[in-house]
Amino acid sequence: MTRSRLFGVGAGVLTGLAAAQQVMLAVGLGGWLPGWQPWPYLLLAAVLWLLAKPWWSENGPDADGVPGFWTAAEKWLRRVPVWAYVVAVLVLTAAVWAWLQDFEPYLGHEEAVYANKARFWFDGTPDAGWGVYRPVGLPALGALALWITGYDGYASGGGMGALRAVTLVLALLMLCTTYLVARAWTTPRRALVAVLVLLSGLGFLRRMPEFLNDIGSTALLLIVVFLLVRALEQAGTKAGARALLLAPVVVLAAFYLRYGVVGNLLAVALAGVFAYGPRAWWALGWRLWAAVGVLVVGLVPHFVYATERTGKPLGMILSATSQANREYVGDGFVYYLSVFPYRLAGDLGAVVMTAGVCAAFAAWRRVRRGGTGVRFDDRRRVFLGAAALLVFVVLGVATDGEPRFVYLPVTLLTVLGVQAVAELTRVWAPRVLMCVGALAAVTVLGTAQVVAHGAMPAPTKLGASTVPVARALAAKDGERCLIVTGYEPEFGWYTGCDALTYRQYREKYGNGRTVHVPQGTRVSFVRFEKGRLQPNATGVRELIDGRPATLLRMPAVTGGSAGAATVWSVRF
């Protein structure tokens, strides 16, 4: 047996183990894995497949010894139109979204912030936890969803399903956008594989069930990248001009949905200059300046409001950056280095993303050398790869690191990677992509189990402790109430009251302050046995300042993580 064939056998074994592992996860047998996290067999298998290239490149799909069922399966799958597969993927996405809802039945911290604002715009209930650095797009969509579904107020206990349905729509929009953009850059079937690989990633599936703005803003950013590529590659044509003038409109939509897209856009702009050169941009002439003008005009309302609230046109954006939960400048970049690419996209996605990085680097080398070896889309590949990598750098320096912040680079590298795998495997490409797509489909189910049993239990256990206390303190008959707790957005949603953290309460109503709690307000100071951002009992009594207080003790909830709760309620 030759060395390359030996590598091929090893690669096949590891690939089989990876597939078997995902099947076990998909059917709910992943409890034997630490934290339900699969072993990264494919990372090593990919290396062995490369080392085995002399063997499998000499033995094409039609060579002796290649099982005939591969040919039959390939022909059968090709009979199905691509649009049918796309519809199936969207149905799978909706099914996974619905299934995961049962494993995270309570709104989390970030979700509750946007949910409170949406409800505030709908019926005037206090928007607990809201800050000026928060974008308005998602709450606006949430308020529309509450209106469409006939939300009856916090006392009804509903509303969460309607809000989370908004992000299901945004997720479907994201996947459709990815497919259409990837189809324009590759082929329909390769685009389908890219969508499946993206959907199978842990980072994507973890946040898909939640009322957050990251997935929706990524869809808009991807459209921006596509429009910029078209504007540059079709410069001088009507299609290129339309793309350039449409780009700022989509940028504005992304910005008002999530202010954090500024870092992504900066990275995209730098990558565009790096890949195409400043002359290519300058050659766009008046159309470029017209696009900039549209962007500036669209930002005027934001600048006016930001100046009114913060004193600076960029105050709200800078405020958003200052909210980063980081220990030092650049710790986000260190985080991305530590999790790239496995923790961002899973086992299969990590291999594809790595292939995308290699493809972008190879394209850059060809462009740098010049000559006849340069491919027609090499500058595009350099642009996409550079944009993806620069996003990690810019966001890693500007804020803390989270997988949901970097969906755009994950998507770009996935599209590049699928194309690179197809080109590398040549005559084997149809069958390789068939296997990648099938494994990705199974991995979607496996990753859903990982999310349900590995990632969601912690926030669900916290909600099991906090939500019963919040419901016991809910506003009654329109009374004015304020909850002081370390979990202010969540308590705001489930009580219908305003809510502050202990630090915010001290800064606003503490001793020596000229501002006082409005007369008639019930203020409830909540302290958990294992809570966060809270003083001890003595500190709470100091805030009560000798006023008569009603004491409520609630025992620890079975399955909860915050322990028993003590509540001091004071009527001002």
Automatic annotation (TrEMBL):
One of its GO terms (biological process) is lipopolysaccharide biosynthetic process. Keywords: Cell membrane, Glycosyltransferase, Membrane, Transferase, Transmembrane, Transmembrane helix. One of its GO terms (cellular component) is plasma membrane. The chain crosses the membrane at residues 36-52, 82-100, 162-182, 191-209, 215-232, 239-257, 263-281, 288-306, 340-362, 382-399, 405-425, 432-452. It is a multi-pass membrane protein. The keyword ATP-binding does not apply. It is found in: Cell membrane. It comes from the Bacteria. Its main location: membrane. The keyword Transmembrane applies. GO terms for molecular function: pentosyltransferase activity. This is Glycosyltransferase.
